[in-house]
Amino acid sequence: MQNYSVKNKIITxxxxxxxxxxxxxxxxxxxxxxxxxLGDYGEVRLIVEKGRLRFLVTQRSYxxxxxxxxxxxx
Length: 74
Fold this sequence. Notes:
This protein has one helix spanning 28-36, and strands at 8-11, 17-20, 42-49, 52-60. The protein is mostly beta strands.
């Protein structure tokens, strides 16, 4: 198993220090943007290969009980 160096530290909103082990600092906005794009329902999956983030997969979902005939899904 390979040893990976610690890439970055971030400080959370409540002042705690957190060491990033899988994400790089420049990937955080990408994950945040993916979460914002989901709307009310959805999921974000992070695919890790060889200890590094390789893919980010998003899936949007819609509440079928709230749908009205003639309305857009969006």
